Amino acid sequence: MSYHRAIDHDAIDRAAAENDRLSSLAQPHAAAKARVEWLATFLDARYRIPGLGYRFGWDSILGLVPGVGDAAAGLMSAYLIWEARRAGAGFGLVLRMIYNLLVDTILGAVPVFGDIFDFAFKANLRNAELLKEHYAKIEMDKAGL
Questions:
Q1: How far apart are CA 63 and CA 10, in angstroms?
Q2: 82 falls within a domain
Q3: pLDDT at position 125, please?
Q4: What range defines the domain where residue 67 resides?
Q5: Which residues, given as ranges, of the chain have pLDDT below 50?
Q6: pLDDT at 32
Q7: Crossing angle, helix 68-86 and helix 9-44, to 10 degrees?
Q8: Distance (Å, rounded) from C-alpha 58 to C-alpha 117?
Q9: 14 lies in some domain
Q10: Measured between alpha carbons, how far is residue 61 from residues 40, 45, 49, 94, 108 in Å?
Q11: Which of helix, strand or coil describes residue 55?
Q12: pLDDT (0 to 100) of residue 98
């Protein structure tokens, strides 16, 4: 006797569509995390001083250019805050990120002291870490944890 089980093609199509939907939800966060980490590293930790192991980035280098350097670095740093808003970050998180950016931009603009400060205060890495924590909370919420 031949036993043949009917295949429910509609159920397979529905499962594939749901898988595509869930995958598309996860991908924007993964891409955003990668962009944020790349920019934060580029601005705050792109280069290493040999022997010391101390890292610095383009935020510190641009800060050496009087006036426009700190403004240009500040604009690039503002992208991290924009990315946080796109991810649905709350007012408190955005406010902390803005605070880090303002401290970096304002104190970095002070001649000589600001240049030293730019090498020490890593606002972009701090903001990237805050945003990574936010993404982790989103992923935990999606997983139901």
A1: 59
A2: yes
A3: 95
A4: 29-143
A5: 3-4
A6: 81
A7: 160
A8: 14
A9: no
A10: 14, 11, 13, 26, 11
A11: strand
A12: 96
